[in-house]
Structure formats: C-alpha cells, structure tokens
Amino acid sequence: MSAALAATMAVVAAPAAMATPTGGYAVFAQCPTKTAHVNGCIYSPTESGEITLGKQSVPIVNTQILQGGLLRPEEEFVKRMAPALNGETLTKTAQRVPGGLLGVKCYEIKGEGHDEKELRKACEKIFEEGFLGVNAVTELAAPASSVVLNTFAEATGLGTALTLPIKIKLENALFGSKCYIGSESDPITLELTTGTTSPPAPNSPITGNPGVQSTKEGGGILLISGVKLVDNSFSAPGATGCGLFGLLDGLIDSKLGLPAAAGSNTAILNDTVEIANSELVEESEG
After folding, report:
1. Contact, 267 vs 232, CB < 8 A?
2. CA distance 67 to 267
3. Does the pLDDT at position 115 exceed 80?
4. Phi, psi for residue 125 in degrees, rounded to 5
5. DSSP letters of 19-83?
6. Which of 70, 161, 182, 218 could form a disulfide with 167 if both were Cys (CB 3.0 to 4.6 A apart)?
7. What is the pLDDT of residues 61-110, one digit of tens each?
8. CA 65/CA 90 separation, integer angstroms
C-alpha cells in the first residue's frame, strides 16, 4: 500500500472512529445506537445508598453506573437493556466493606472532635485497607437484556421500576479471584421500586422516591433527579469460590449470616437517571 493511499484511508476512517456524542448527550457514549432494535439510551449513576445481605451492610460511597441501550418495548412502558459498548453495562465499582476481614466496627467510634475523627481514621486505615481490607463489587449476573426498566412504575411508585440480577464479588488476598455471593445460575434478583415495599418479616416496609423530572438539550434528554430505588424482599445465597477450593465459603457464610432468606436483606439505591432517543444521540456525534 502506498503512503498516499494509506493516508487517504486514515482520513476517511478517522471520523467514524472518533464519532462520539457531544454536549449533554456525551454521557451516552456507551450506548449501542447502531445495534438492532435499540431506540433509546440510558445513563444512571448510583451516587449513594446501601446494600445489606444478612448481617453485613455495605454503604455505596463510590458512584456506580448503569448504562447502555434501551430496546424497543415489547409492551408499553417496559424496556429491556442492550449492553454497553465497553461491556460494562453495570460498572464494576468497588465499595469498602466496613470492618474489613475482622469485622472491627470503626464507625462505632463516635464523636466529631479531632481526637475521635483521627481515631476513626486510624481504625479504618488498619482494619479496612490493605491485607485486612475487603471490597464488595456488584456485578451483573445475567445478560443486559435481563435488566428491565418500567417507566410507568418508576414514575408512579406502583410495582417494580427496575429489575436487576446481580452477584457480589468479595475482594481480599485470602479470598482469591472467584469469591462471590450470587452467580449466573443463582443470582440476587433485585425488584426495585420507587414506592413502598411489602417485605416478609423481619423486615419492615421502606419507601422509595420517583424523583423529579426535567429535561435537557431542548427536551431531548429526560432527566430524573433524586430517584430512590428500594427492595427488601429478596433472598441472598451463600458464598462460593472463596479461598482455595472454596474452603472459606462456610466461614464467610457464618460471619455474614448467609444464605439469607427474603426479609433479611435490603437494597437502597439513590440514583440520577438520564434517558434519550438513540437517534438524537447519534445526531449529536462529533
């Protein structure tokens, strides 16, 4: 191939390779707009909240993002997701497990004075980082099409707004690389609502929030702020694959109280949701 021909091909190929959404649509960079049957895009960061499985609660302090395409609905208001272009439909974001490997409750050191704050900080440094630290990473446990958004339920609080099958990876040097609570064959299935839950005992009902709707980009993007999605009616299986040949599975189950029946677990996700038509996303590409 001549140098001139190579240069010409590079110029022709460059716009396609570099085309990404711009302006307010930039958040939809991972939306598969050219995938068959995709007619919408979603970008939804979870900025805070908490997941409790059995006896262990893990606060969400690092933003996790649900992103990708929305397939043409098979029924009104119900939309299944198409996978994100980069493969991370749900970003694999680590959250620190309070107490770490030994379960030391640093948060029980109360007070807002200098000494109390420094003691809490030192406690967390020792017991929640390094060799003694444990991270929890929430991952999808099924194809993206198993993630279902019901826009009517989200807006009204009636029924399930978001179906999210997950598994949670526990990270620590002792656990190995395959230590999970939940799996593809036995997922933790969240049926999240913006209304009020009806859990079995011992959990009590908790109430979500559908948030406040507005628009961006001249009405091209639906923005829903202050969304609170909740579920405390799901069950959680025991740990698998932890340590050499899974030798630590039982120890982790005993410590966390797993398996945990429905009524013993809680998920609270505080989100922002942005949705746009896929054609508008494509038109914004620069």
Report:
1. yes
2. 19
3. no
4. -60, -40
5. ----GGGGGGTT--TTSTTEEEEEEEEEEEEEEEETTEEEE--S-EEEEEEEEPPSBTTEEEEE-
6. 182
7. 999 999 999 999 888 999 999 999 999 999 999 999 998 876 766 776 78
8. 6
Pairwise CA distance, residues 90 & 92, whole Å: 6
Buried b (16+ CB within 10 A) or exposed e, 13-31: eeeeeeeebeebbebbbbb
Query: Distance between CA atoms of 182 and 180, rounded to whole angstroms?
Result: 6
> Do strands 64-71 and 56-59 pair parallel, antiparallel, or not at all (unpaired)?
unpaired
Tokens of 39: 């007619």
Per DSSP, the three-state class of 99 is: coil
User: Tokens 């397939």 appear where?
Assistant: 71
Question: Residue 238 has which token pair?
Answer: 């025991």
Side-chain-facing half-sphere of 114: CA atoms under 13 Å? 0
Q: Where does residue 71 fall: left (phi above 0), alpha (psi -120 to 50 degrees), or beta otherwise?
A: beta
For position 21, what pLDDT does the model report? Answer: 97
Q: Where are the beta strands (DSSP E) in 122-278?
A: 135-140, 148-150, 162-171, 180-181, 188-192, 212-216, 221-231, 239-240, 266-277
Q: Which residue has the tokens 């630590």?
A: 248
Q: How many CB atoms lie within 10 A of CB 110?
A: 8
Q: Which helix (H) or strand (E) holds 94?
A: strand 94-96
Strands 180-181 and 239-240: antiparallel
ω before 259 within 30° of 0 (cis)?
yes
Q: For the chain, give the mean pLDDT.
A: 91
* Most distant pair of Cα atoms in the chain: their distance: 74
Distance separating alpha carbons of residues 43 and 91, to the nearest angstrom: 11
Counting every residue written for the chain, the total comes to 286
| Residue among 48, 52, 28, 26 at smallest CA distance from 40 | 28
